[in-house]
């Protein structure tokens, strides 16, 4: 261990909910996106599930809002080091969308992509079983554009760059295909509890 | 939008010891910290690193910081850090750190905000958001590049302008609270961009925006309104 002379860190409660190398952002919710926030109204938003599925499906805003509601309440973790506890997102479980499209047995991975062109790759197993959502509400209010509104993907058990803002769809694949940050040196999976930050981790 | 460079995952994943060699005051709140990192693989302007400090009890604090220095062969890198109020890591740097101290770094990281010096670059920064952009300006100078490069940098006042003594004809400062006599006070406007975007270089600009989220939103919207293609705007935001 290489200790740093004179460094004590701030007073801390290392609760079980803080993954290694993270700090508690408190009330802050930093905005991190590499591109211009798009002008995307609910009327223009669509969400498509395609690729290795029985039938490609596309939902518009009204269609997605008619699906059974689901919520996530818990923590989120950004690769840049902050974690935010006790957030509440409202939307629809990704399972609901996937069930309607019918993933083929050969589908093992997905690329989630945004209306801006941003993308992230995920194993299909990280998107199913109540572990991922399409959300349009934060803390009971419409999701702000800079946080991905009108709708974004939320995969809270992975670093938050996987939770694609302004989500436009999922392409199901039989292989892992790197997304935007993964092509720029970030880890293929991004599990915060194993500190999978960069491609060498 | 594609990244600008390939990132070596093995290099990015290795922690190295960095020895602090020099501290330079830039403004009352901002200092530059120079480190010797003998194994540093070199970087491209705009890239960042992750550093970590370790307490006696094993507690570790990690932060991402942009590299301020241009790539060179000296085995040294520089970071320019704000003294954040109650900042756990920046507080250590500004009140405890002294030459000879050792920390750990890994990087360079991320190929997206990088600028290798190959395309005309229009740089918009505010506050310490100018740090990765200064690495680009310094690179441009050190290599004697002729590709067009312009920097618009926003600061509250002349006393808050980081690297004030280093800017040349490529830079236009914008002051939001107080300015020298004869210089307007106020945030960046379309008028600052109009001369640059009405007569862009032949291949157009690659725009790099860095600063707080509110600055990044404001500046990127100005760029889009002035005709800069959305897919040629790269943004690095910090809270």
TrEMBL record, chain A:
Pfam families: Oxidored_molyb
Source organism superkingdom: Bacteria
Region feature Disordered, mapped onto this chain: 1-26
InterPro entries on file: OxRdtase_Mopterin-bd_dom, OxRdtase_Mopterin-bd_sf
Transmembrane stretches, start-end: none
Location of the Oxidoreductase molybdopterin-binding domain: 37-181
Protein name: Molybdopterin-binding protein
Organism: Streptomyces ambofaciens
From TrEMBL, chain B:
Keywords: 2Fe-2S, Iron, Iron-sulfur, Metal-binding
Gene3D superfamilies with a match to the protein in the record: Nucleotide-binding domain of ferredoxin-NADP reductase (FNR) module (3.40.50.80), Translation factors (2.40.30.10)
CDD domains on file: FNR_iron_sulfur_binding_3
InterPro entries: Cbr1-like_FAD-bd_dom, FAD-bd_FR_type, FNR_nucleotide-bd, MRET, Riboflavin_synthase-like_b-brl
Cofactors named for this entry: FAD
Residue ranges constituting the FAD-binding FR-type domain according to the UniProt record: 13-115
Keyword NADP: no
Pfam families xrefs: FAD_binding_6
Superkingdom of source: Bacteria
Keyword Iron: yes
Name the UniProt record assigns to this protein: Oxidoreductase
Originating species: Streptomyces ambofaciens
Lineage: Bacteria, Bacillati, Actinomycetota, Actinomycetes, Kitasatosporales
């Amino acid at each position: 261990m290489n200790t740093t002379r004179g460094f004590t860190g701030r007073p801390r409660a290392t609760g079980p909910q803080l993954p290694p190398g993270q700090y508690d952002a408190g009330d802050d919710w930093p905005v991190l996106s590499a591109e211009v926030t798009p002008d995307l109204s609910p009327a223009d938003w669509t969400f498509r599930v395609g690729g290795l599925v029985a039938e490609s499906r596309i939902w518009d805003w009204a269609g997605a809002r008619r699906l059974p509601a689901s919520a996530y309440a818990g923590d989120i973790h950004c690769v840049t080091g902050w974690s935010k506890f006790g957030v509440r997102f409202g939307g629809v479980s990704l399972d609901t969308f996937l069930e309607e499209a019918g993933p083929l047995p050969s589908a093992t991975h997905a690329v989630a992509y945004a209306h801006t062109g941003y993308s992230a790759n995920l194993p299909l197993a990280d998107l199913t079983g109540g572990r991922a959502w399409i959300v349009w509400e934060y803390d009971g209010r419409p999701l702000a554009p800079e946080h991905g509104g009108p709708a974004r993907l939320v995969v809270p058990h992975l670093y938050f760059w996987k939770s694609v803002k302004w989500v436009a769809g999922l392409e199901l694949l039989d292989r892992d295909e790197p997304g935007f940050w993964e092509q720029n040196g970030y880890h293929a999976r991004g599990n915060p509890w194993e500190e999978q930050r960069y491609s060498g981790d | 939008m594609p990244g600008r460079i390939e990132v070596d995952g093995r290099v990015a994943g290795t922690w190295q010891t960095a020895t602090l060699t020099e501290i330079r005051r830039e403004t009352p709140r901002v200092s530059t910290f120079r480190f010797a990192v003998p194994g540093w693989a070199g970087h491209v302007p705009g890239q960042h690193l992750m550093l970590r400090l370790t307490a006696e009890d094993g507690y570790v604090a990690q932060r991402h910081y942009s590299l301020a220095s241009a790539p060179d062969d000296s085995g040294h890198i520089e970071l320019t850090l704000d003294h954040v109020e109650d900042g756990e890591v920046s507080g250590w740097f500004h009140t405890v750190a002294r030459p000879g101290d050792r920390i750990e770094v890994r990087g360079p990281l991320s190929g997206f905000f990088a600028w290798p010096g190959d395309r005309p670059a229009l740089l918009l920064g505010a506050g310490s958001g100018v740090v990765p952009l200064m690495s680009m300006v310094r690179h441009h100078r050190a290599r004697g590049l002729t590709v067009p490069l312009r920097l618009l940098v926003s600061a509250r006042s002349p006393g808050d302008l980081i690297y004030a003594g280093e800017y040349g004809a490529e830079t236009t400062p914008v002051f939001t609270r107080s300015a020298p006599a004869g210089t307007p006070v106020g945030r960046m406007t379309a008028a600052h961009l109009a001369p640059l975007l009405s007569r862009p270089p032949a291949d157009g600009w690659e725009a790099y925006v860095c600063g707080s989220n509110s600055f990044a939103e404001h500046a990127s919207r100005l760029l889009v309104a002035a005709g800069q293609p959305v897919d040629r705007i790269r943004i690095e935001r910090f809270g």
